[in-house]
Fold this protein.
Amino acid sequence: MNSNTTIYSTGVLAIIIVIGLVSEVGDTIASTGHDEARKLKELGEILPLEQIINKARQQYTGRILEVELEREDGRYIYELELLDDKGTVWELEFDAKSGELIKKRKDD
Protein backbone atom coordinates (compact mmCIF):
# COMPACT_ATOMS: atom_id res chain seq x y z
CA MET A 1 0.00 0.00 0.00
CA ASN A 2 1.60 3.31 -1.03
CA SER A 3 1.46 6.49 1.06
CA ASN A 4 -1.28 8.09 -1.07
CA THR A 5 -3.51 5.06 -0.54
CA THR A 6 -2.79 5.14 3.17
CA ILE A 7 -3.61 8.87 3.40
CA TYR A 8 -6.81 8.38 1.40
CA SER A 9 -7.83 5.36 3.49
CA THR A 10 -7.17 7.31 6.68
CA GLY A 11 -9.30 10.19 5.40
CA VAL A 12 -12.16 7.88 4.49
CA LEU A 13 -11.88 6.18 7.88
CA ALA A 14 -11.98 9.59 9.61
CA ILE A 15 -15.15 10.49 7.72
CA ILE A 16 -16.73 7.15 8.67
CA ILE A 17 -15.75 7.67 12.32
CA VAL A 18 -17.25 11.17 12.35
CA ILE A 19 -20.46 9.85 10.83
CA GLY A 20 -20.45 7.04 13.38
CA LEU A 21 -19.98 9.53 16.21
CA VAL A 22 -22.97 11.52 15.05
CA SER A 23 -25.19 8.61 14.18
CA GLU A 24 -28.18 10.89 13.78
CA VAL A 25 -26.70 12.26 10.57
CA GLY A 26 -28.87 11.11 7.70
CA ASP A 27 -27.59 11.80 4.23
CA THR A 28 -24.29 13.64 4.49
CA ILE A 29 -23.76 15.65 1.34
CA ALA A 30 -20.70 17.75 0.66
CA SER A 31 -20.61 20.13 -2.28
CA THR A 32 -16.86 20.16 -1.79
CA GLY A 33 -15.26 16.79 -2.52
CA HIS A 34 -13.92 14.66 0.32
CA ASP A 35 -10.32 14.98 -0.87
CA GLU A 36 -10.58 18.76 -1.11
CA ALA A 37 -12.23 18.98 2.32
CA ARG A 38 -9.46 16.85 3.84
CA LYS A 39 -6.79 19.07 2.30
CA LEU A 40 -8.55 22.22 3.50
CA LYS A 41 -8.69 20.80 7.04
CA GLU A 42 -5.00 19.83 6.93
CA LEU A 43 -4.10 23.35 5.75
CA GLY A 44 -6.12 24.91 8.56
CA GLU A 45 -8.60 26.47 6.14
CA ILE A 46 -11.59 24.72 7.73
CA LEU A 47 -12.37 23.17 11.10
CA PRO A 48 -13.19 19.47 11.39
CA LEU A 49 -16.89 18.70 10.92
CA GLU A 50 -17.01 17.20 14.43
CA GLN A 51 -16.18 20.61 15.96
CA ILE A 52 -18.95 22.30 13.99
CA ILE A 53 -21.45 19.64 15.04
CA ASN A 54 -20.40 20.13 18.68
CA LYS A 55 -21.00 23.89 18.36
CA ALA A 56 -24.44 23.25 16.87
CA ARG A 57 -25.27 20.84 19.69
CA GLN A 58 -24.37 23.49 22.29
CA GLN A 59 -27.18 25.67 20.96
CA TYR A 60 -29.74 23.20 19.58
CA THR A 61 -30.92 19.73 20.42
CA GLY A 62 -32.34 17.42 17.85
CA ARG A 63 -31.40 15.27 14.90
CA ILE A 64 -28.96 16.37 12.22
CA LEU A 65 -30.52 15.61 8.86
CA GLU A 66 -27.94 16.91 6.42
CA VAL A 67 -24.50 18.51 6.31
CA GLU A 68 -22.95 20.41 3.41
CA LEU A 69 -19.63 22.15 2.92
CA GLU A 70 -19.92 24.95 0.37
CA ARG A 71 -17.89 27.90 -0.82
CA GLU A 72 -19.87 31.15 -0.69
CA ASP A 73 -18.58 34.67 -1.22
CA GLY A 74 -14.96 33.55 -1.00
CA ARG A 75 -15.26 31.54 2.23
CA TYR A 76 -16.19 28.01 3.18
CA ILE A 77 -19.49 27.44 4.95
CA TYR A 78 -20.75 24.38 6.79
CA GLU A 79 -24.51 24.19 6.41
CA LEU A 80 -26.33 21.92 8.85
CA GLU A 81 -29.99 21.00 8.66
CA LEU A 82 -31.34 20.01 12.06
CA LEU A 83 -34.74 18.71 13.18
CA ASP A 84 -35.42 19.93 16.73
CA ASP A 85 -37.47 18.20 19.42
CA LYS A 86 -40.57 20.21 18.45
CA GLY A 87 -40.47 19.11 14.82
CA THR A 88 -39.00 22.36 13.47
CA VAL A 89 -36.27 22.08 10.84
CA TRP A 90 -33.46 24.61 11.25
CA GLU A 91 -30.82 25.53 8.73
CA LEU A 92 -27.61 26.60 10.48
CA GLU A 93 -24.64 28.08 8.64
CA PHE A 94 -21.21 28.17 10.26
CA ASP A 95 -18.05 29.81 9.00
CA ALA A 96 -15.94 26.71 8.33
CA LYS A 97 -12.69 28.39 9.37
CA SER A 98 -13.75 30.13 12.60
CA GLY A 99 -16.76 28.02 13.60
CA GLU A 100 -18.85 31.18 14.03
CA LEU A 101 -22.61 30.74 13.56
CA ILE A 102 -23.32 33.21 10.78
CA LYS A 103 -26.92 32.38 9.89
CA LYS A 104 -29.85 30.44 11.27
CA ARG A 105 -33.33 30.14 9.91
CA LYS A 106 -36.36 27.93 10.11
CA ASP A 107 -36.64 25.80 7.01
CA ASP A 108 -40.10 25.78 5.48
Summary: The helical segments are 3-21, 34-42, 49-59. The beta strands are 27-28, 63-72, 75-83, 89-95, 101-106. The first helix runs from residue 3 to 21. Residues 2-30 have pLDDT under 50 and may be disordered.
